[in-house]
């Protein structure tokens, strides 16, 4: 499954702070299917959405 990254947040945020989760929740309230995943190579949390197929890919 291909995904589009909406935003990236560093993993070392202050304790109790979850900016990636808050950002994703706000997008979900707007009707966007956003979720948070961990990018271990970048040591960051990514907010992603499923990439929609385009007519050009058919």
From TrEMBL:
It comes from the Bacteria. Residues 1-20 are annotated as: Disordered. This is Uncharacterized protein. It comes from Streptomyces silvae. The lineage of its organism: Bacteria, Bacillati, Actinomycetota, Actinomycetes, Kitasatosporales.
């Amino acid at each position: 499954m291909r995904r589009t990254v909406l935003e990236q947040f560093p993993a070392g945020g202050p304790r109790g702070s979850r900016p990636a989760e808050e950002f994703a929740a706000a997008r979900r309230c707007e009707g966007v299917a956003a979720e948070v995943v961990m990018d271990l190579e970048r040591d960051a949390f990514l907010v992603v959405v499923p990439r929609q197929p385009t007519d050009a890919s058919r």
